[in-house]
Amino acid sequence: MEEDIKEKLPEKLKIIELDSIHKKYNKNKEAVGSVEFNFDKDESEGTKKYFSLIGPIIDTIENGKLLFIDEIDTRLHPLIVEYIVNLFNNKTHNAKNAQIVFSTHNTNILKKEKLRRDQIWFVEKNRYGESNLYSLLEFKGVRKDASYNKDYLDGKYGAIPNIDFIFADGDINGD
User: Fold this and answer.
1) Residue pair 1/7 in contact by the 8 Å Cβ criterion
2) Which helix (H) or strand (E) covers residue 86, if one does?
3) Contacts of 27 (CB under 8 A, 6+ apart)
4) Per-residue model confidence (pLDDT) at position 2
5) Closest of 78, 54, 57 to residue 68, by C-alpha
6) Which residue from 27, 49, 122, 126 lies 20 to 30 Å from 18 (Cα-Cα)?
7) For residue 38, what pLDDT is reported?
8) How far apart are alpha carbons 79 and 90 in whole angstroms?
9) What pLDDT is recorded for position 34?
10) d(C-alpha 154, C-alpha 169), whole Å
11) What is the pLDDT of residue 17?
C-alpha cells in the first residue's frame, strides 16, 4: 500500500531527501561546526516519529480538531509523550479545545496532575478477545490522593493483560 502512495506522488516529491544538521563539538565541548545527517538513515526512530507527529499536532491544535494516535508511547521518550499531552491540556496553547485520543502502555502518564479521571479510559479484553471500554470516572470511591498509575498496575481498575497462560505449565524458572 505504501508503494501505491509513492507511485501517485508527483516526481518532485519522490526525490525529496530530508537532512538534519547537528552541531559538532570538540573535546572541550565547544561548537566547532556542524555535521549533516540523512534524516531517514541516520536519525533515531523516536526522532522520526516525533517529526511525523508535529504537523498533525499543530494542525489539530490550531484548528480545534480531534487527533487519534495509536500507541503514542512507541519509540517516544515518556517526557515527550507527557509534553504532547500537556499541549492539549493547556488552555493557552489549546484555545480551540482540540482533543487528542491515544492508546499507550506508558503508565507514567496516569497521574492526576496530568489527566483528569474523565480523560482516562481503559480497554479490557476478555478471554474471547472482546474489548470493553470504560472510564476511570466510573470507579466510585477513588481517593483524591490516589496514585492512578500504581493502582492501575495493582489491578484496581482492571484492563491488565492476562499473562498467566504463558507460564501455565510452571513458573518463570521452568519449575
Assistant:
1) no
2) helix 78-89
3) none
4) 56
5) 57
6) 27
7) 82
8) 16
9) 93
10) 24
11) 72
Q: Which domains does the chain have, with CATH numbers?
A: 1-43 (no CATH), 44-162 (3.40.50)
- 3 state DSSP class of 94: coil
User: Against a cut of 0.70, is the pTM above it?
Assistant: yes
139: CB partners within 8 A, 6+ apart: 156, 157
Q: Which residues pair with 25 in a beta bridge?
A: 31
Report residues of the chain scoring pLDDT below 50: 1
- 54: three-class secondary structure by DSSP: helix
Asked whether the beta carbons of 75 and 49 are under 8 A apart, the reply is yes
Distance CA 98, CA 109 (A): 19
pLDDT at 166 (0 to 100): 62
pLDDT value of position 162: 76
